[in-house]
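Supplementary Data S3. Sequence and structure tokens for construct A.
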Amino acid sequence: MQAGLRSSDAFVLRRCQILLASARSERAGTIAQQLGCHKQTVLTVLHCFNASGLAVLEEGSSRPHRLRTTFSQEALEGLQDLLHRSPSDFDKPTSLWTLELAAQVSFEQGFTPRLISDESVRRALKRLRTNWKRAKHWITSPNPHSLLKKTHEID
């Protein structure tokens, strides 16, 4: 523990300071005030130390243990079926799906309990192993002869 006080890693240093202060029978609120952190931080470190010993000095992953999935398996299948139809079938003024539009229609169709982000739809499509590409907007000319001009059939 004393060696941890000389550590160049701020994570190890802070945790050693908390543990040594606790060994001196200082209260969590006092330790937090001295170190400039929240009381819950001190309590969490002490709880982890009691559970796993000196392993508390090793920084673990900050990634969540389980990612929440917005779509159930049935909802994923519904989303896949939804994307094989035109948005105009759902009274949308476009014929191209966007992730945001898919999220909105998924909510309206009851696939999700709340309106979700386009990133959630993208992750759901990744779970389905569906390749998603951004919709391309094609420019069309209002000139009725534009197609003929492109094919060089006008003299």
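Construct B, processed identically:
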Amino acid sequence: MTNSVCVFCGSAPGVHEEHMKVASELGALLAERGLQVVYGGARVGLMGAVADGALARGGRVVGVMPRGLERYEVAHRGLTELIWTEDLHERKRCMAERSDAFVVLPGGYGTLEEMLEIISWKQMRMIDKPIVLLDTQGFYQPFVALVAEMTRQGFAHARADTLFTVTSRLEDVLRALGVATPPPPAGDEVQS
């Protein structure tokens, strides 16, 4: 059962406004479904948009930040909980332990490193948790092509792409996480 979702994403906003919009909408959607958000702890970029989107809907948001990154990522001081770690390794371990599933938004080297580590953990059966890549603006299409090429050249198993789900639609994120979509409000039923 999914109660807590880790979101990996960039501490920069990116060049497309849609990245920030989708990050905020994802945070709001997770909060509306009663899911706790666990993320990197920054108040800037996509990280801040996810946190603020969830907080605006009354969601519980846990930030996990290494002490050495505070001056670069600017810790979000309005979170439900802010956990300080000694380094990036401890940060990732803490985030994974506190989460039942993972959603990966666009980001830089750190986001890609987090994504690849969690996919590797799943491949090695260290975890069995859903992983969803939210493909805003086609951001993860080059990665999908790389996985296909690794498979073609014999460096990944033929079913390597089943370790994660790629979607560009927020509605599909909930399904991939195993979160039931609520029924329509009363009065919206289809009459026959």
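The first strand starts at residue 4 and ends at 8. The first helix runs from residue 17 to 32.
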